[in-house]
Amino acid sequence: MPHVDPDVLALLALGEPVASEAEERHVAECSDCTGALDTLRATAAVGRAARSAEPLLTPPARVWDGIAAQLGLADDVRPETADLRFGSSPAGDPPAPATPADEASPPAPVPIAERRGRRRLPAAAWLAAAAALVAIVIGIPAVLSVLRQPEPTVLAEATLEAFPAWPDARGAAVLEELPDGTRRVEVSLDAAVGDDGFREVWLIRDDASDLVSLGVLEGSEGTFTVPAGVDVEEFSLVDVSEEPRDGDPAHSGDSIVRGPLT
């Protein structure tokens, strides 16, 4: 007999007892049909396992673009816009409303035996589609690992108090450590903007005997990398200063806010 219909193999993989005795004997004796059925069962198992895993994050658009390019899908077919239910149009056209005649006389189900005469994909195409689905599902953990970036560890925080020349200013700083060991300081500042000059962020030694510039604060917030070798337990004061545009890299002495990391 010819190979078992791919529809029957797909239902068998899902646990549906739809095969006749002759088809069951053929699957048991035919290596091609047995291999196709095993592949479909493996795909179904992976799909069930994926449903029981932790909630999936929405991948970036480039993930779908890659899948669409591999499968040759149209540009206007996207998961957030296309209606992928059975019988729906890829272009998203809404189904026609049911008429009383439709409700009174629902279409009769088409037996599998009649569907076998319809156009079908070759077994190799079914295997290729199943393999592609397995690859996509197996690739989900890799996508999730990219999306789930480890959170930095907060090491210390500081409330930045205003200096007398800037009575209305206030600020805050947070010292964090990234998984790779990089330390950074996130600074926020609420202060009036001077007529000329710029703001610079510093780490100052506790006794004010030395200081390290972290960079220029653009706007009201900024993130600055702590240079390697700087001991933040010694350089624990966060300072934001008003600097003139005179080309001198030294601290101007005009601090806006300052506070200790604790």
TrEMBL record:
UniProt cross-references to InterPro entries, sorted A to Z: RskA_C
Ranges for domain Anti-sigma K factor RskA C-terminal: 126-254
Keywords of this entry: Membrane, Transmembrane, Transmembrane helix
Record region (Disordered): 82-111, 241-262
Pfam family, one: RskA_C
Entry's transmembrane regions: 124-147
Name assigned to this protein: Anti-sigma factor
Basic and acidic residues compositional bias, start-end: 242-251
